[in-house]
Write a structure and sequence with these properties.
The protein is of the alpha+beta class. The protein has one domain: q2cbj1_9rhob like domain (Jelly Rolls), CATH 2.60.120.620. Helix content is about 15%, strand content about 35%. The protein has two helices and 14 strands, in the order βαβββαββββββββββ. It has helices spanning about 15-20, 55-75, and strands spanning about 5, 30, 45, 45-50, 85-90, 100, 115-120, 130, 135, 140-145, 150-155, 160, 165, 170-180. The strands form three sheets. A seven-stranded antiparallel β-sheet has the order 1-11-7-14-5-4-2, covered by helices on one side. A five-stranded antiparallel β-sheet has the order 3-6-12-9-10, with no helix packed on it. The longest helix is centred in the middle third of the chain and has 19 residues, at about 55-75. The radius of gyration is 15 Å and the shape is globular. It starts with a strand and ends in a 5-residue tail after the last strand. The model has no long low-confidence stretch (mean pLDDT about 90).
């Protein structure tokens, strides 16, 4: 299945606030692309990484359950592991935060094995403007839900972007499931 799948209420609004707090704003760093390449014309955001242990264990368990159910019922991909940490992205209007059209598969040992991407909306939709997650799986642009705590899952090879944030800021949480290379 190429089309994205939305799952409502993966996290409550209170849990979304806890996830943002767990990312510790002082730990946010300038976002790059695969292998840490910087490209201000493609992506302008700050990111922090959460581990699947300790404070992040409950977050990871919930994502694992959501990905497994979606894959079993909808995608049917051969998934083997979650080889990367969870990423919290922070798009700020003052920096004109955005992420241009891209896919999540890239060069490198882990990025080349990304099969399924899950993105969780962490911000209240009324707290910012712009910052829409848009997905182009089949030549048509699909705008993902902005509901706080909702998930969007898509094959990692599908093109998607985050439009520029024009007021305040938007937070999201992303995790990738890995498996054998697509053929």
């Amino acid at each position: 299945m190429l089309r994205p799948l939305e799952v409502a209420n993966v996290f409550s609004p209170e849990e979304c606030s806890e996830i943002i707090a767990a990312a510790h704003p002082q730990a946010f760093a300038e976002a790059g692309l695969v292998a840490g390449r910087k490209a201000d014309g493609i992506r302008r955001a700050r990111i922090a990484w959460l581990d699947e242990t300790k404070d992040g264990a409950w977050i990871f368990r919930r994502l694992l359950e959501t990905v497994n159910a979606a894959n079993r019922e909808y995608f049917h991909f051969d998934l083997e592991e979650f080889g990367e940490r969870m990423q919290v992205a922070w798009y700020v209007a003052e920096a004109q935060g955005f992420f241009d059209w891209h896919s999540d598969i890239g060069q490198g040992l882990l990025a080349s094995r990304r099969k399924l991407t899950i993105v969780i909306q962490l911000s209240d939709p009324g707290s910012y403007q712009g910052g829409d997650l848009e997905i182009n799986a089949d030549g048509n642009v699909y705008r993902a839900t902005r509901a706080c705590g909702s998930a969007v899952l898509m094959p990692s090879f599908v093109l998607h972007r985050v439009t520029p944030v024009t007021r305040n800021s938007r937070f999201s949480l992303t995790l990738w499931a890995h498996g054998p290379h697509f053929h």
